[in-house]
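Database export, one record per block. Field names are fixed; values are copied verbatim from the stored entry.
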Amino acid sequence: MCGVIETTDHIMFSCPVARFLWVFLRDILALGSIPSSVAELETILLSRKNRFQPILLFILAGAMWAIWKSRNDLVFEDKVLASPTVIIHKTSAFLAHWKKLLGEKKQRQVETVLAEIDGGCASAT
């Protein structure tokens, strides 16, 4: 997406577009730090306790899927990422669509995260 040699860590964590999403999620989810590799993400998931801990992996999977889909749209479909906020909206859309796979309690937790993402997007504009 940014012209640098692609590695998993670069695509998912170091690319400026991915980094934008991680900074946003760090602030929304109170992650404390931004992962720069799969190993660091694992450390965050295993050691971090916050109010979204029960669904944190679900949320981060949605974020990483949004990054991957955006990268593939650019590489294989010649689509241009209109703005970095598009990746936040993709993440939100995936989470909203996938939440029906969860139990009722976790669905409510995802809805809380989605409300915070929407609020974060609104305050950023």
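Remark 1: The longest helix spans residues 56-77.
Remark 2: The chain has one domain: 8-124.
End of record.
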